[in-house]
Amino acid sequence: MISFTVGVSLWFCTILLMTMVILLAKRIHCLLMQAMVGLWLAGSLFILPVLALTILTGEPLKFSLNILPILDLQAEFELNPVNSFFLLPVCLLAPFLLLSLVGYVERKRFIGVENWLILSFLATILAILVVLLSQNAIVFLMAWEWMTLSAYVLIVLSVKLDKEVTPTWSFLAYGQISGLSLMILFLTMYAENHSYSFGVWHKNTQLRAALSHHLIYLCVLIAFGAKCGLFPMHHWLPITYKLGHGICPALFSGIMSNLGIYGFLFFTTMLGSPPSWYLWALMILGLISGLWGIASSFRTTTLRGVLSFSSMENFGLMVLLIGLSFYAVEIHLPKLQIFSLVSLMILLISHSVSKVILFLGVSWVEEQTGKSKLDQLGGWMKKSPWIAGLMFLAVINLVGLPPFCHFLGEYLLVVSAFEAIQIVSGVGNSLLLAIVVIMVMISTLNSAAMSRMFGISFLGVDRSTSKDSTSKDTNSKDSQNIEESISESFISQYSEKKSTIWISIPLYFISAFLVILSLLLPILLNQFLNIIYYFSGSLVDGDFMRILGQAQDLLVKLFVVNILFLILIGIIFGFRTWVLKTKTIAKGPTWDCGFAQPEARMQYTSGSYIEPFSNLAGPLIGIQKEISPILEAFPERKPRLRLKYNDITIEYMLAPLILSLQYLAKRAKKLQNGRLNMYVLYIGITILVLLAWVIVSN
Amino acid sequence: MIISIFHLLLCWLGSPLLLGVIQRTKAKLAGRQGPPLLQNYYDLWKLMHKGAVFSDSTTILFRLAPGISLASLLTASLLLPFGQSEAVISFAGDFILFVALLALSRLMMIIAALDTGSAFEGMGASRDIIIAMLTEPTLMLTVATLANVASKSGFSPTGLEKEFLSLSLFHTAITLETWSQSGIVLLLLLMPLSVILLAENARMPFVDPSTHLELTMVHEVMVLDHSGPDLGLIQYAQMIKFWLLGSLFIGLSVPFRTTVPLLDTGIDFIAMIGLAIAIGIIESSSARIRWQHFPQLLISAMMLALMAFVLGLEGIIYK
Fold first, then answer.
1. Can you spell out the DSSP letters for A494-546?
2. If phi over 0 gives left and psi between -120 and 50 gives alpha, with beta otherwise, what is residue A622?
3. Scanning A186, A584, B68, B283, which has its CA 20 to 30 A from the CA of B187?
4. ipTM over 0.85
5. What is the nearest CA distance from A586 to chain B, expressed in angstroms?
6. Which residues of chain A have pLDDT under 50?
7. Rounded to whole angstroms, how far apart are CA atoms B164 and B166?
8. Helix runs in A370-384, H state only
9. Residues of A with Cβ-Cβ distance to B95 under 8 angstroms
């Protein structure tokens, strides 16, 4: 408890320090910034052992605070194995993101807004902590709104800096839809229980009216679906992830959107007895999100676009797993339930880590080139081999291939679904069959999407023709000021190197964590049993340890195969090195069937790479091919082929909805006619309606 | 266990022979003498003694790809049963790992192809990924159906309770009796499995391995820039892949089992040679299909696999 309090206090101190800097000074000093990072990191180091202990022992840590003395609002907080697990990425990844942010601030990336940017980043993290710990509806809602607004400020600040005219409203709009749904949910629950405490709600699960029971689950679906970009509430995700600096999508995808998953898990367990339609909605929408997300990534031509749709796909799979685990309780399949939960845990942590690596890498590439389109890049593996290499590890992990941990999660899901198919009959059987088939399709589409992203932008030859701006600046120095130029160059190089370290160190650490996690997760699974027990203990008490043991056995066997795989790689490379030791190794241009020195423009582009796929499924996902017909033997105009990308969900779902709202708003605007007597009439009608309601209800 | 290790060695050492048999068959049918059966061994030996030339545009991934690709296929071979005995490693759902290792092998080669910055190799990578998108779900469904059929047959020749959904289970349990119980499902599976075998190994009618026209190639065009030992590793990986998918096909189509493990191994090995001869005959007597027709054939195979999967699940065949 003391360690946790010290950790959280250090986080608060960092925020206070930052606020003071904003109030007292215009610019933040380098040393102060480093001290702040140190303070935050120390806070994380104090919190981490408490999280580990809570996960290992399963003992919850409860405390309450009188946060609003005027209203006498006693806020309850609890640190249990589940929110400890969701806090792990926050404590592990947020300090590295902060470090990276500081690195970019040092590179003069955020002149003028750096203080506010850091403050909004820290405020978002703190809000996430409060959301996860909160056991009171009012505190939860306040922290939820605080999180949305501070994250919005974070985007707006970096967008403003980039002078982009971008629709930042979508993030705020979906955030407010989520907040509004939560408000309806909490008010309904308050009306039922006369309390804002989650503990009281959990005790009174049986006393709920049928209508409010369905309403609260609809609210849960909308509130948390909007947060994690569940289909059809996903439109904010690809738009927002393209905005601002790369740190923003890294924070959103790696840490913040996890709260959507937490919300689904926590509220479904806490509210109890979820209706069947809700579970089916989770599973079907999760599946659609997974498939639509990864298929849509072929429609985008930017690095961040591909990653954002990959996030949609992964969150879709996680929502599917939540639905599946609760559905398994309904059909009495404890093995499916526990395997789904284990799989969910693995996918969540693996996705968080991989996305932070990838978005940090992408922001580094964008920082260096000023470009984000796949077809404008190329050859980055040669310029930054380490950063690109680490990103490649994250790519392989996200594709779901061995020996990385994402594969373990997908493996458990497919195995348990296959087994359940043998037992379940009727509609459930068809659903499980669909899950298996779509999972395999998602996996192969993922492979294509990620190889496209990495292959086109990081491999091959650089497609850009512009020269490096740094060398241009150095060359333009006047020859009379050579000494000064050398001095400035040395300082700038030193500063560049130092700030590059700030940016690259987080990548090394997080990648090392990914590798360790992938290798050790199979043998560490038993340490996490309290998290799974939190959900399944009351449901399948007797079978719990046996089934978890089965999952552990399977993962240990996979661990053995992974080790053998790594040994074989070692043997092959040892042999290759030995064979090539005495041989001549030459270098030359790419062979390319006689076209020596191929130009960058001859390479395959992101569009041509997926051309066979767009021929096959283009109309389904909104890829249109435009070909100018060749009508003459020797046409004067060059024949032209263009791929057009449309989001059909925007075209056929979102646009009609917004147009209808606009139409209604136009009609409603007539009520606001500027005549005072009409406004008095509205007030009178409202009072009469309220009076009638009071009389009827009494 | 000893016999399983023997099978593993047979796979690692005998796979180059199968491609030799295909080449020899094609040569004989064309009225030529053809290369010796052991030509592929000589080729591998020769390549291992050569130096290497690397393109300026390539990175470390280009050098790593052939080794990782081969290592994943060799690891996959640990999961593959042959003859009557189980694989070296067998557990529930091992076929998922098997398919994933094949996918990793392919992804590494695609990455290496894109690393060269060559238009031709990019084209090969693009084609290979679309083939993967259609064959991998088919392969997964096929193997899952086999595992299903095997588990439902309730027959275990060794009398041991094997892991559910395991490659070893289906391989040892598919016998004449299983064929008599669920022949329609197994017959339906032969079609997608043969399509996968030919498409994944770049054989006719999908790809003409003897062509020298780059625009018509898929796998061959992806390795244009590899040379020396790396090319040797790639060629050896292709041979192992042929053995892996071939033995899956044989496991299904040759259900004869005796109680003598070595005899079963002999039967399956002869069947593998027979498969190689059959592929040689197909390649000599058919033309390559147009690239535009690839997806149609692969989707048809996927639909057949799905149909077999559903039929097997519903137990229509058993009732």
1. HHHHHHHHHHHHHHHHHHHHHHHHHHHHHHHGGGGHHHHHHHHTTTSTTTHHH
2. left
3. B283
4. yes
5. 5
6. 165, 466-496
7. 5
8. 380-383
9. none
